[in-house]
Structures are given as C-alpha cells and as structure tokens.
Amino acid sequence: MTNLIDLGVRELRDGVRAGTFSAREVADSFIVAVSKAKQLNAFLVETPDHAIAAAKEADAARAAGETLKPLAGVPIGMKDLFCTKGVQSAAASHILEGFKPEYESTVSQKLWDAGAGMLGKLNMDQFAMGSSNETSYFGNVISPWRRADGGNAPLAPGGSSGGSSASIAARLCPAATGTDTGGSIRQPAAFTGIAGIKPTYGRCSRWGIIAFASSLDQAGPMARDVRDCAIMLEAMSGFDAKDSTSLQLDVPKWEAGLNASLAGKRIGIPKEYRVDGMPAEIEALWQQGIDWVKDAGAEVVEVSLPHTKYALPAYYIIAPAEASSNLARYDGVRYGLRDLPDGANLQEMYAATRAAGFGAEVKRRILIGTYVLSAGFYDAYYTQAQKVRTLIARDFDRAWETCDLLLTPTAPSAAFALGEKSADPIAMYLNDVFTVPSSLAGLPAMSVPGGLDKSGLPLGLQVIGKALDEQGVLDACLAIEERAGFKARPDAWW
Amino acid sequence: MRSDCGPDPVPHRRGGCNRGSRSASRAAMSVDAATVKKIASLARIAITDEEVAKIAPELDNILGWIEQLGEVDTSSVEPMTAVIANTLRLRDDVVTDGGKRDAVLANAPQAEHGFFTVPKVIE
C-alpha cells in the first residue's frame, strides 16, 4: 500500500474523496510520523486530537454522501505565530510561553472551515525574527537535509518558518502555514527543497497572527509543490473586516487556473540581483531557470531595479521600528510571562519581564527600532527608509512596463550549518537580499525548488509578480517545476 | 514604542530633523554604552552592564550599515504609507463586541476580582 505520508495535499484530498483511503488513515499516518521525529524539533505542540476530529468529520461526511470540503482529509502544520484557540501560541518565545488564546486567527479558522485538521504548532524563529530558526526559545529546528560529505553537520532549515519547512521536507505534514515579513516563507522553502508563496500584502488576514512588522507581515502556504500551494492559498485568502489592511477582493480559483504555458509572457531578469560573491552554482541555477522559462514559451528581458541595494538597510529600519511598537504590548500584565523581583515597582516589573522574556535577537531589534523612532532620529531613519521604500516600489512599477514577472534566485546560498552565521547579525540579514525588496513593495513572490548544489542540498528559484497576480507567479513556478523535475528528498535519519 | 524623549543628540551623527540630502560619510563609533542604556530604558528592557558592553558595538555596526540609506536622494519622494492602494474602511459606530471579561482575563499572570492586578502604583 502507498505510504500515505509520501502524498501531497491534492493526492490526499482526491484519495479521500475517491475512498482510496480514509481521512482517519491519513491523520494516523502523519501523527505517527510526527511522534517519531522529535530529533528535528519541528513541532512545539502536537495536537493529534485536532487532526483526528477533522478526519472523523471528513469520513462521516463521505459516508453520508455529502460533498467534501476543499481540504477534507488533509492534516496540516500550523506555524506557532498563528493564534489557535486553546492551544499554546507562543511565537516560539518565552514571554508568551503558556499563552492559550481565547480566539482563533482568521487564517487558521479558514483552514479548519475548509476541512483541514491540525497536527500541531510548528517551531520558528522567535517572533519570526531570524533566517535560520536559531532564535527560537525552544531550541533549533534541525533540517532533515544533510550535506553529502558524510559530516552530518546539522543544517539550518531556514527561517523564520523553519518548523514549517523542515516538517514538510521530512514528510511530517503535507503542507503548513508560514508567514513572510522579509522572506520567511521563501528562504526556508528554498533551503529544504519545497515550494512556498507569499501572496500580495492584504490577501491573507493578519488578524490573530502575532504581529512582527505589520506593514510587511503576510501569511502564505508552504507545501511540496506548486499545485498544493495554490490549493492551500485559496483556503487561506479572503477579505476580513477585522484586518484594516485586508483587501476586499474575491479569491481567484488559482488551482483551476494553473497553466504551465508561458507563451506571451515577458520575464524580467533584474541585473542588480547579480550580487558580488554569489556562488557559481546559484548563477548556474539562475541561468537554468532562464532556459526553462524560455522553453515554456516566455520571452526573457533584462530589467533594472536600481534601488535594490538599499532594500535591506531600509528593511532593517522599518521592520525593527514596527516590531518595537508591536512588542510593547508584552508587559507582564495581560498575558504571558511576569517577572516581579522582590520590591519591584510597576516600571521595574515591565523591564524585568521583558528582559527575561525576550531572546537576544528580539531585544536587538526592539532596541534598533526604539533608537530609530526616538525623537531627533525619526526623520533621518524612519522617514528616510519609508521614502526609499517608495523608490523600491517605483523600481518594480517601472519594470512592469517591460515585463510581467521577475525571475531571481531565492537565496544567495544553500542551507548553511547551524551556528555558522549566528555570531554575525549582518551576515544573517544578508540572506534575505533577494526576498526583502518584493516584501517592501507588497508583491506576490514564490520559491520553487530548482535543483541540488554539489553538496546535495536544495536550491530555490524565486518568481515575483505584479500586485494581485498570484496566478502569474504560480504559473511560472509550475513551468519551472515541470522542467526541474525535482524529486530529491532527505533520507529519514531521525 | 515611539518616545517623546530620545537619546541625547550624538555629536557628529545626524541629529534633529535633518531632511534632504546628507553626506554619506559616517561618523566614528557613536552608539556608546550610555546610548544603549538610554534606549533600553525607553524600551523597558532591563539590561546589565555586561549586556551593554556586548550590544553597543553590535548596534553601532548595524546602524553603520544602515547609514548608507543617507546617500539616496529622496528630496522629491513621499514616504510610503501603503504598499497596495487601499482605502481605510469605516464601519457603523455600533457596539460589535464585549461582555468577555473572563476570556480577556484568562491568560493574565495575575487577576483578582475581575481586574488585571499590578504592583501598587499609588502610595
């Protein structure tokens, strides 16, 4: 019999619909896989009861001859940034350890309404601040991938959605939610040989997602292939009156609209993304991607995004500024940790609680944010960064005059070893060089596996589209996926 | 956490509301221990002298890297306010929520008599 954990979202959905296997068999298979993979540290909380309840509902609906919901029979993983009612939602932090929300985030509710079940809450970088999953209070996620050098050095699964990427690559769940503020869906997807899409800012409601940088935060799906991402994204998207920046638009039928022919499409290659010191293998993969989209019928044109080099420094003003404001709510009064030293007054309680509850990277970003927003510095840093952001968005608008989509590498390297970059914050920040510009402009962007490097590690290609053109992005990624024929998977050593 | 009272203006670094083009050249080390203590206090994060000694050069390094934004001419550019053109919706001015005291207090580290409790504020 087929090993059910090897199947993706579409295959599971269709198999349950056809009665090839039951939803309960699917849920049980993944629950066992999760319980055996503790070494990866991808799950913070396991919720087998949730997955089983959804499976029972799917099987009962089928037995009664009802039409099954879009994700009936599909158990998924939920990033710990999403508030889930009655289940710890800690953003992988100490300050929210034990926090069990009294409410459900809009995106997770939409997934449950679509019939999905939850296998558990996924580890991540603390408050989504990190690119390697090394800032979690609950320990590193270990990538299921290993270099083919026999050394077995534990590798980063990428971040911040590192529990999501690792668990999908390890077949612990067929799909998971991610969130992306500057690359937190796309970079971990690239590091682990899976697909992930950040939709246009405003497609997915931010309500109930623990806030990092509100003008950038956007939820999206991660899964093994492009079609599975389209199915998940349809369930996650849609207008929500509870999010003031939610887009009041119907959700397109992305799955039904998938089309791998790129005839008539113009795909831009931004020359500024040829950064110094980029490994030859990344260059070669990029060229391979260009050949693939040409083969799919696209016309390839060179474009210029002249302000690209300023995207990262602008991001590292805007994101910490918003974070310092958003994280002001953690004060030891309303939820989460309280540290009250003997004889401390209220102000001392705040300071002690926040010192004990936040990790080093979170503190670093709050301090940067507080500094750049403080009186006398606000215009020079924050206003200047928001002006540069306008210029970056304008660069994309100009590019759209000569092309429909952009093709770039997702990250400047394959997965690095845990500990390799954690001592140098700027080296870590540079990992997001190709993903941050489209975040600043709010554009849809997706990573799809392209191949393996010489160490046997996955490399990803990124497609960026115009605002609201998720279909164009998914289609181009599908064309690449069909030509890349990426079938590699990590050996189950855990 | 925008504060009213910022760090003391630092000599040789851009201070005040300095709009328009600026020199791209960078001043010497300007995030010192006193600045770190000041911003940690504004951010309500208790910090030890050891941590200050570690964080000051880190922040100085990061802010120095960020400084390159100063070389971009933005004199005729408006700061971005929304990535996607969108209007802020207004809803009817009616009560839509409430009556959830126990749920609101459910995660409080300390709650008594239907209130959040904190150390004594008024003597």
**Into which percentage range does the β-strand content of chain B fall?**
under 5%
Average pLDDT figure of chain B = 80
Question: Terminal Cα separation of chain B, in Å?
Answer: 27 Å
The strand order across the widest sheet of chain A is 4-6-5-10-11-9-7-8
Strand segment count of chain B: 2
Helix-strand sequence of chain B? HHHEE
Strand content of chain A is 5-15%
Mean pLDDT of chain A, to the nearest integer, reads 97
Structure characterization notes:
- The complex is a heterodimer of chains A (494) and B (123).
- By secondary structure, chain A is of the alpha/beta class.
- Helix content of chain A is 37%, strand content 13%.
- Chain A has helices at residues 9-18, 23-35, 48-63, 106-113, 162-169, 186-192, 226-236, 254-257, 280-295, 311-326, 346-357, 360-373, 378-399, 425-429, 436-440, 470-484, and strands spanning 43-46, 75-79, 117-122, 175-180, 195-198, 218-223, 266-270, 299-303, 405-409, 445-452, 458-465.
- An 8-stranded mixed beta sheet of chain A has the order 4-6-5-10-11-9-7-8, with helices on both faces.
- In chain A, helix 2 (23-35) packs antiparallel against helix 3 and helix 10 packs across helix 13.
- The longest helix of chain A has 22 residues, at 378-399.
- The radius of gyration of chain A is 21 Å and the shape is globular.
- The mean pLDDT of chain A is 97.
- In chain B, helix 1 (33-42) crosses helix 2 (49-66).
- With 123 residues, chain B is mainly α.
- Chain B has 3 helices and 2 strands.
- Chain B has a two-stranded antiparallel sheet with strand order 1-2.
- Residues 1-28 of chain B have low confidence and may be disordered.
- The longest helix of chain B is centred in the middle third of the chain and has 18 residues, at 49-66.
- Chain B is flat, with a radius of gyration of 22 Å.
- Classes of the chains: A alpha/beta (494), B mainly alpha (123).
- The interface between A and B is large, with 77 and 66 residues.
